Amino acid sequence: MKSYKALEQRFRRIAAVNGALAVLGWDQSTMMPEGGAKVRAEQIATLSVIRHEWLTDPRLGDLLGEAETQKDQLNEWQAANLREMQRQWRHATALTPKLVEARSKAVLNCEMVWRKARQEDHFKSFATAFHPVLELTREVAAAKAAAFGVAPYDALLDEYEPDGKAATIDALFADLGGFLPAFIDKAMARQAKKPAPLVPKGDFATETQRQVGLRFMKALGFDFRHGRLDVSLHPFTGGVPTDVRITTRYHEGDFAKSLMGVLHETGHALYELGLPKFWRNQPVGEARGMTLHESQSLLIEMQVCRGPEFLAYAAPILRKAFKGEGEAWSADNLARLYTQVRPDLIRVDADEVTYPAHIILRYRLEQALLHGDLPVADLPHAWNDGMQTLLGVDVPSDSLGCMQDIHWATGSIGYFPTYTLGALAAAQLFAAAKEQDGSILPGIAKGDFKPLLHWLRKHVHGKGSLLSTDALLRAATGKPLGTAAFKAHLKSRYLN
Amino acid sequence: MKSYKALEQRFRRIAAVNGALAVLGWDQSTMMPEGGAKVRAEQIATLSVIRHEWLTDPRLGDLLGEAETQKDQLNEWQAANLREMQRQWRHATALTPKLVEARSKAVLNCEMVWRKARQEDHFKSFATAFHPVLELTREVAAAKAAAFGVAPYDALLDEYEPDGKAATIDALFADLGGFLPAFIDKAMARQAKKPAPLVPKGDFATETQRQVGLRFMKALGFDFRHGRLDVSLHPFTGGVPTDVRITTRYHEGDFAKSLMGVLHETGHALYELGLPKFWRNQPVGEARGMTLHESQSLLIEMQVCRGPEFLAYAAPILRKAFKGEGEAWSADNLARLYTQVRPDLIRVDADEVTYPAHIILRYRLEQALLHGDLPVADLPHAWNDGMQTLLGVDVPSDSLGCMQDIHWATGSIGYFPTYTLGALAAAQLFAAAKEQDGSILPGIAKGDFKPLLHWLRKHVHGKGSLLSTDALLRAATGKPLGTAAFKAHLKSRYLN
User: Fold this and answer.
1) In a domain, A102, yes or no
2) Which of B93, B124, B157 is the last residue of a domain?
3) B31 and B118, same domain (yes or no)
4) Residue range A237-274, pLDDT digits in tens
């Protein structure tokens, strides 16, 4: 146990530095004046180097080896903690410092070029800067694949979705990719027969929007002794589990943009707030991965808050807060409004029906890019083809096409699929929760989210990284991750 | 030069950790929800340990020794930088880890006990917790005195006022202590003959107070691309020179409390913002010490903003912003109001005339405590005696007497005198500035602070830690720090 206990001490220090980095990052996006950027970047870089030094300290490797031989003395949580320590160590030590540095530089440059290229719709300049990022990401994938004994794409995926496998995703996405185009047509046809939703009009004062957001956060179970709501350009969930910081951005003409964003981030926040208290500061106490994290935000935003029960409870509150009048503020109208289906160009604006098509396209293309089956120069063509096949959408420019997202520019390959894996998991978890506890849905209709939160705490949040995503889903829902619950959800919401 | 350059690299990393600590501290006082406290404390402790490890790394000592032998290759700024590196090294290495830890624990406990004891006016329980703090602070003083080759009190003072000497302070405070009692009587007599100032009445909305504060900050030269104004329980200036964070606290019944606080912190902030750009991240680029820091806040708040020129400019702005009516809002009335003299119990509420008496008392008592000439049990008696002699005030309780300040509870001996040294320096610097540049005072009267800021940038802010406080004052004013300018200022403001 001595080696294991020494490891806990070391990872406790690492968690403290991670937490400090989280505060610095949150402040950078919410509070920091522009003139503070350069020095802040140096603070963040310095703490990141400290963390990397600690994670690659040879003595840490020795301790991991020693603890592994004494594994039979560990309980279930400690063993899982050791497994997650080993995962972090593997990721940190798989790469030479030279490769890490070269990739950081290439990414920094590509991110800058991407901002400009997207603005000016100039794919060629993006391609030039992206080439070295892709090359170096391939080297990273190769090095990690060799070290972990998995395929290159899976090695990248492991960073976002531990133990994730492309083979599993391939099967799920093949199924979904076959289902979606026809389903979208049916949903659109059905939508066309219903009255077009009315859009609540008004200048919606920022402070009122904020109060409404806070009210729903509180109702959903966000504990303000352990978190805050602030403003940033791009919404995110940051901080640490004892102090979770979510952000939004207000649009005076449309309160729903901020509101749905706040509900989405609240889903992320509830996960963080519900992580196992005893394991704070240890790897096993962290959220399991991007799939489950996204499942929690989508469960709250998509499954719960765009559903008729929630909107029946929320509509009168919204009407009163914004002094709304008329049919536009009815629960029925809001339900139609917040579940509109429209195949379109931009992923981040997509509805839950068409969103997976955006992801499937990116997943296929990033695999082809990584494996060298798709030259960077051919990306726009492949993109536009895919948008036509999957969504029937014509792409007028690369800015609105393959350059719309930042992910690839930063070398984040393996990230995209977790959005849709999260959507599948959200549907599957919510279906199981409703089935196992009949008070969840009636609770939502009255604004009582305790039964739902109780179920999520028990089956998801409180598990931390004890189980794999797959094992957690099996334990909670009785099945491995599949498409059935998601398809059933779509049919029930969009074809009835 | 190689050793020196290596030192610069090391101190650059230390500065990054210092900056991260500044952000964590600012956030803790302004943004953090209560439930984040424990984990935040661990983040701060971890970064503090990193800093201490870096500062006490034997290799750093070797480099300092090597650089010292090659000092003739350094220019003036580099040599001063090396001197300040050596000072930080001396402070960090003078104490054994055991002593540092024992003192931290004693201080943590004493701070907690002090809060309760002050509330309950129970000196005995404070004394019990303060005893070990004083003992351990004596050990610190002895260890540093031996290492630096100075007297114990001077060794403590060096942390707040580098190269400060009790002998110098003794002389200044003997002079001032002799002058003040009779002067206070005269100022009170003169004040009694003038009409009593009217207090502007109203509920002063927080947002209006904030806007007024921002307006004056901007006029004084605060650059909002490099800083912010926020709210905290106790006002402070934090952050880093590229991102200076000042705070205030609003009282709806009295806008002046926040306004004067904001102006005071703006003085501190202007110093930080004006530190030499080239030497950011290096010890020589830091503010010189507490005396000069306090001189900058007092120069702005006391010398400038409570003066007739500033109030002639500010009164109409305040009247308009708060929709004030009548004589209470005249510049003359505000000048009388903001320069009221009243000997009283509490240091932080004291006016500039009686404030030094509070400090002289504390300075004498903390020396006696440190040297063992005053047993802790006798502190209340000595305190009450001193308040009677220096200010003619009866102390009704220890809560309003010797337990009012947190400083001693935290082992901060050597800090108090810098407040009054700062007041002396503020008067001396402002007198010299006005003498050297005739446009400063007319500028202030029109709300143009550029001439003043220009002078301060050149003679104080831009010098960083290049010179000692004494050398800087000699260069800027032609004289060592003295009482003459301060006494002249008091006579001119309170006897004319």
Assistant:
1) no
2) B93
3) no
4) 999 999 999 999 999 999 999 999 999 999 999 999 99
d(C-alpha A325, C-alpha A339), whole Å = 21
In sequence order, which residues have a C-beta less than 8 Å from that of residue A193 and are 6 or more positions away? none
Domain match, A139 and A25 both:
no
CATH of the domain at A342: 1.10.1370.30
Q: How far is B248 from chain A (nearest CA, A)?
A: 16
Residue A140 has a pLDDT of 97
Please indicate, yes or no, if residue A333 is contained in any of the structural domains: yes
Flag whether pLDDT at A235 surpasses 90.
Answer: yes
Report pLDDT digits (tens) over B175-208: 999 999 999 999 999 999 999 999 999 899 999 9
Residue at which a domain ends, from B38, B63, B93: B93
* DSSP 3-state of A346: coil
With b meaning 16 or more CB within 10 Å and e meaning fewer, what string describes B354-371?
A: bbbbbbbbbbbbbbebbe
Phi/psi at A227 (5° precision): 175, 175
The pLDDT of residue A328: 97
Chosen for mutation from B30, B38, B43 (greatest number of chain A CBs closer than 10 Å) is: B43
For testing contact with chain B, the best of A43, A47, A281 (most B CBs within 10 A): A43
Query: How many separate domains does chain B show?
Result: 2
Share of residues in chain B with pLDDT > 90 (%): 99
Closest chain B residue to the Cα of A38, Cα to Cα? B242
The answer to whether residue A101 sits within a structural domain is: no
Instruction: Examine the domain organization and report whether A244 and A373 are in the same domain.
Output: yes
Of B34, B226, B281, the CB nearest to A225: B34
Active-site residue identified among A8, A84, A159, A265: A265
Q: How many CB atoms lie within 10 A of CB A195?
A: 9
Q: Which residue, among A18, A31, A206, would best test binding to B if mutated, counting the most B CBs under 10 Å from its CB? A: A31
pLDDT tier, A225 (very low <50, low <70, confident <90, very high otherwise): very high
Question: CB–CB of A33 and B243 under 8 A?
Answer: yes
User: pLDDT tens for residues A67-88?
Assistant: 999 999 999 999 999 999 999 9
B458: pLDDT strictly greater than 90: yes
* Same domain assignment for residues B25 and B136: no
A379 vs A371: CA distance, rounded Å: 14
**B17:A45 CB<8 A:** no
Whether residues B36 and A242 touch (CB distance < 8 A) is answered with: yes
* pLDDT greater than 90 at residue A105: yes
The token duo for A312 is 């029946």
Pick from B154, B41, B159, B4: which is nearest to B90 by CA?
A: B159
A265 in active site: yes
Split at pLDDT 50, 70, 90, the class of A302 is very high
Q: Is residue A72 part of a domain?
A: yes
How many Cα atoms sit within 13 Å of B456 on the Cβ side? 32
ipTM greater than cut 0.90:
yes
Cross-chain residue pair A33–B225, CB shorter than 8 Å: yes
Q: Tell me the torsion sign for CA atoms B231, B233, B236, B242.
A: negative
Domain membership of residue B87 as a residue range: 1-93
Q: Which residue of B has its CA nearest to A26?
A: B27
Of B16, B32, B42, the CB nearest to A46: B16
pLDDT at A202: 87
| Residue A113 and residue A15 share a domain | no
Shortest alpha-carbon distance between residue A406 and chain B (Å): 27
Residue A493 contacts residue A430 (beta carbons within 8 Å):
no
Whether residues A312 and A403 fall in one domain: yes
Distance from CA of A147 to the nearest CA of B (A): 31
Q: Do A432 and A489 lie in a common domain? A: yes
Same domain, A114 and A2: no
